[in-house]
Amino acid sequence: MARTATIVRETSESKVELSLNLDGTGKTDIDTSVPFYNHMMTALGKHSLIDLTIKATGDTDIDAHHTVEDIAIVFGEALKQALGNKRGIRRFSDATVPLDEALAKAVVDISGRPYCVCTGEPEGFEYCMIGGHFTGSLVRHVMESIAMHAGICLHLQVISGRDPHHIAEAEFKALARALRFAIESDPRVDGIPSTKGAL
Q1: Do 53 and 28 form a contact (C-beta atoms < 8 A)?
Q2: Where are the beta strands (DSSP E) in the chain?
Q3: If pLDDT is split at 50, 70 and 90, which confidence band does 66 have?
Q4: Rounded-to-10 torsion of CA 76, 136, 33, 74
Q5: 62 CB neighbour count, 10 Å cutoff
Q6: Phi-psi region at 186: left, alpha or beta (left = phi > 0; alpha = psi -120 to 50)
Q7: 87, 22 Cβ separation under 8 angstroms
Q8: Segment 125-140, tens digit of pLDDT
Q9: pLDDT over threshold 90, residue 97
């Protein structure tokens, strides 16, 4: 059964059209209308091997916040929808990813229980403007929105880093790699990987 999802979400602040295939090859077609976010979501698709198409517009003349958040919400919803009953998946995974001086670690549990812990971003990172449109504070907000709407537990830790671009990119790539293995089928798993019988 295909693990795919397509969602269109439109509000007074943004319009998001998103499609994904969990069993893809990392093919992406991303236009979020926020250039640095294009870069981050492209990396997320590429390194998770999730085929991902995003077309989004919004009130970025006011701030990138609404559009960025709404895309994260839709990505989380699509991830949850495509996972279905989660039968046969690995469920848990972690990944530690470097980008020059930056190092980030993501740990994922496809648990059905949303939770997000982000630690280690250097002081002042949240105020940095990356690429002219994207503030450092949005990284944590994206991660929280994905976790809440996908129903996953995500722990994300910045271990080291100096350049805001590198820190953010290492965080997105760490999430991507952790998701890649957590959502994969495990040939040794028969049924739902939970003692409760449901995720």
Answers
A1: yes
A2: 4-10, 14-21, 28-31, 51-58, 92-99, 102-109, 115-119, 129-130, 134-135, 153-160
A3: very high
A4: 10
A5: 10
A6: beta
A7: no
A8: 999 999 999 999 999 9
A9: yes
